User: What shape does this take?
Amino acid sequence: WVWGSKGANIYTANPGSAEMSGDDVSILVTADRIYGRGGGGSDTATIWDSPADDLFEFFPTWARASGAGYLHNLQGFTTMIGKAGLGVNGIDEAIFLGSPKGDWVKSTTVTARMLVLGAWRHAEGFDTISAYGRGGRDKPDTLLVQDSPGADTLQLKPMETTLNTPDYKVTAYGFASVEATRVNINAADDRVTFEGSPGNDTFVGNPAWARISGSSPAYTNKAAGFPSVMGYGTGEGLDKAFFSDFNGAADARLEDDTFTAGSIVAELTGPGYRLWARFFDEVHAEVHLGHDIANLSGTTGIEELHGATAEVSLSGLNAKGAFANYVKGFDEINASGETGQDRAVLMDAVVDLATYGPPADVSLEELAQVLWLNEFEKIELWKSGTSEKTAIDNVDAVFAWWE
Assistant: This one.
């Protein structure tokens, strides 16, 4: 046993030895099992790994490090640091276990650290890092995670996070608030996947960031700066996705974007980003600047399209239930039925009833919004504020526009 004083002490340990210093204390011991105790001051303990495999475990008030032929047990230190050699000296694992209070964990390429009950726990150079939240009673447990310079895969589920990098792996459980940031802006093929809960989930994304959240369980997972984010709905609750090509109203991004949506999968893509959703009940895509194109397709069942200058939607049924895809602000929309039994209702749209094609005397670039309808059995043209209605039946291809 090695005890510190009431002042600030520094405790340094290696496999089989430990030293306590500071505040007129100087103790050096060698043993297979060593128990280090802080004396109540602002004490710091640092433990180094062995040449073989090591396990470092950080609990809310104490810690232990173990390996072949040694054990260190620590308690009473305000800061505890575990140091390992990433990629050398065996396969080293660090485990953080949280408290009933709201804990905070951050993982970077340099270190992983936890703030628990006002004390710091650090792990540097470990091959595998695991963190366990215990569901903070006063506030949610929070996890911040950063990418590595290599090609990373980040999987975010409700209360579960997994980051796989070329050099190390991070897993976290029980954290209701997770924020992942891509700090290494390079050509590495980083990928993020979101998975929803059995309840209702909301997936929001733009070229800068994406977020998924739900209430059963209550969670929020966010990823910022990643070029590809894919979201998977469960088909059990009411899941909605909202994609846009701008990050806030003041975003002046000017790029051409494409939205492609079917009954199961929908994605919005543009230079430098991809937002993808599978089995979401509703997917909404909104764009601002650039020449943007939307492609909507149905199933072998019966779909219904509603079109206006403000928004165009296509809805129907898939293997999980009802689906609906909505587009807003697109210059060109291509909508395709599959069986010839689909219906379209267009509000205040213009159609050349002689040719059903584009206007001959107007450039398409001058039109506010154009819509190609393919394989819709019934098309109805409505005029707002009136009962006027024009029916178009069994025309394979119809071009409509809004001026």
